[in-house]
Write a structure and sequence with these properties.
Elements (H helix, E strand, L loop, with lengths): L13 E2 L11 E6 L3 H16 L3 E2 L8 E6 L4 H20 L4 E6 H6 L2 H4 L6 E3 L7 H9 L4 E3 L20 E5 L1 E2 L10 H5 L3 E2 L2 H13 L4 E5 L15 H11 L4 E5 L8 H9 L6 E3 L7 H6 L6 H14 L4 E8 L6 H14 L3 E6 L17 H24 L5 E9 L6 E5 L5 E5 L12 E9 L3 E7 L1
Parallel strand pairs: 2-3, 2-4, 4-5, 5-6, 6-7, 8-11, 11-12, 13-14, 14-15, 18-20
Antiparallel strand pairs: 1-2, 9-10, 16-17, 16-19, 17-18, 19-20
Bound molecules: S-adenosyl-L-homocysteine, iron/sulfur cluster (SF4) and FE3-S4 cluster.
């Protein structure tokens, strides 16, 4: 799969790092699972805890408080957290006073059940109750278990400054919750009703981020294109335009958008500003109208393709990615073939592909899970293979081109190579030649592409 900044699951936990000054003398360590909204929530939690005098620990060894910020989107995501909790027992034995909190979507879904878990969890706190964390942690140190899982209609943490710990790329959550109720999805239950943050404060935060040295900002929400300023200052296209004008040299991205709300106005706004990146993550889920209807997605394949056509004609060269679920209840071989046909038609630059995982409380939960796992696995393999081929072919078309790259730093696999991204969000790898390289992290450079895989472009910096 491509490395795209969509609402993807992290396979391993991401941890926050550098030590900040604080005055409780206590240190906090947060592990984050799930989507980018959760990553940004971790920064909000860190902001709240830093305000209460905590510093960030570099590892669990150093921590007095450990939070797991969890995801509940598929069963696998939850299984990982249960395993991690078992593992944490070891630390608890070595440090009996350690406070362990489960935050995020799984906390919201399982609530009190988690407090029983291995006798290990002291706190269970849902996504709208993070302001209470300092108080709850304090009580946990006094031996009291705590649970706070109320969902709010208004909480957007608008006044909290997220404690960001690294990089040149920042997230801003512009809305919380989701009202779409796709029949397979747990998010409306774990994150509650949709609510938007005021436009003005988002624009202000983007300006501050530029001043602090950030060079890319991603506006986040489960459904960003249904954003509405609470004071009547406009919709998502207006917000995007306002941010683009406020920070004209910042790269601006957003995720995730829902096909139903992908308006002409939004597409035209993207085309009108050079600093809004020509890349759209537009999850389709299935290529069969019958399945789309069962999923409550509010569009047909024809309507989806019409949106793609509008994007392609208005923003030439715009990259597209998607999410696809295989094996949703009642999915037949014919439905599956239709998904493959749609993928061939659209030719996405990348895709996140999943086996359907039934979630309690959702509408589809009651419909059962009638596609056998072997069939789901085979269908998943087929679409992954198809997507890899398409991504490879599209990337071969980049060979010989000179692309603009925002420098991110050393590549994870080989520090002698550096990496960055194109405006279309493709990862570019290029050799880094000592300090004479002439560029630093955060610079925009030009790279001539010489080779390409299905996931990466490889080339040399051109002067
Ligand atoms: N708000 C985003 C999706 C967030 S979840 C949107 O509507 O596009 C990210 C992806 O996880 C979804 O697009 C979907 O493809 C997948 N997903 C959600 N629930 C799932 C489930 N129960 N089983 C398998 N995949 C699921
Ligand atoms: Fe889930 Fe659908 Fe909302 Fe996305 S739009 S978060 S898939 S309910
Ligand atoms: Fe995100 Fe997972 Fe919650 S994908 S919104 S952390 S269920």
């Amino acid at each position: 799969m491509l490395e795209l900044p969509v609402l993807e699951l992290q396979d391993s936990a991401l941890s926050a790092a550098p030590v900040q000054s604080g005055n409780t003398g206590r240190a906090l360590y947060v592990e984050t699972y799930g989507c980018q909204m959760n990553l940004n929530d971790t920064e909000i939690v860190q902001g709240i805890m830093a305000g209460a005098g905590y510093r960030l620990a570099n590892s669990i060894e150093e921590a007095d408080v450990v939070f797991l910020n969890t995801c509940a989107i598929r069963e696998n995501a939850e299984r990982k957290i249960h395993e991690r909790l078992k593992h944490l027992r070891y630390w608890r034995k070595r440090k009996p006073e350690l406070v362990v909190g489960v935050l995020g979507c799984m906390a919201e879904r399982l609530r009190r059940n988690l407090l029983g878990e291995q006798g290990l969890v002291d706190l269970v706190v849902g996504p709208d109750e993070y302001r209470r964390l300092p108080e709850l942690v304090e009580r946990a140190f006094a031996g009291e278990q705590g649970i706070a899982v109320k969902l709010s209609r208004v909480e957007t943490y608008d006044d909290i400054t997220p404690l960001r710990t690294q990089g040149i790329s920042a997230w801003i959550s512009i809305m919380r919750g989701c009202d779409k109720f796709c029949t397979f999805c747990v998010v409306p239950f774990t994150r509650g009703r949709e609510r938007s943050r005021p436009l003005e404060s988002i624009v202000r935060e983007a300006g501050q981020l530029w001043e602090q040295g950030f060079r890319e900002v991603t506006l986040l929400g489960q459904n960003v294109n249904s954003y509405r300023d609470p004071h009547g200052q406009g919709d998502f296209a207006d917000l995007l335009a306002a941010v683009a004008e406020a920070v004209p040299r910042m790269r601006i991205r957003y995720t995730t958008s829902h096909p139903y709300d992908m308006s002409d106005k939004l597409i035209e706004t993207m085309a009108a500003y050079e600093n809004i990146c020509p890349y759209i993550h537009l999850p389709v889920q299935s290529g069969s109208d019958r399945i789309l209807q069962l999923m409550n997605r509010h569009y047909t394949v024809a309507q989806y393709l019409e949106r793609i056509e509008k994007i392609r004609t208005t923003i030439p060269g715009c990259a597209l990615s998607t999410d696809i679920i295989v094996g949703f209840c009642t999915e037949t071989e014919e439905d599956h073939q239709k998904t493959m046909e749609l993928m061939e038609k659209v030719r996405y630059d990348g895709a996140y592909m999943f086996k359907y995982s039934p979630r309690e409380n959702t509408k589809a939960w009651k419909w059962g899970d009638d596609v056998p796992d072997e069939v789901k696995s085979r269908r998943l393999e087929e679409i992954i293979e198809l997507q890899n081929r398409i991504s490879w072919e599209i990337n071969q078309g980049e060979i010989g081109k000179v692309v603009e790259v925002l420098v991110e730093g050393p590549s994870k696999r080989d520090p002698a190579q550096w990496q960055g991204r194109t405006p279309t969000n493709k990862v570019v790898i290029f050799p880094h030649i000592g300090t004479q390289a002439g560029y630093v992290v955060g610079d925009l450079i030009h790279v001539r592409i010489e080779r390409a895989t299905s996931a990466t472009l490889i080339g040399h910096v051109v002067a």
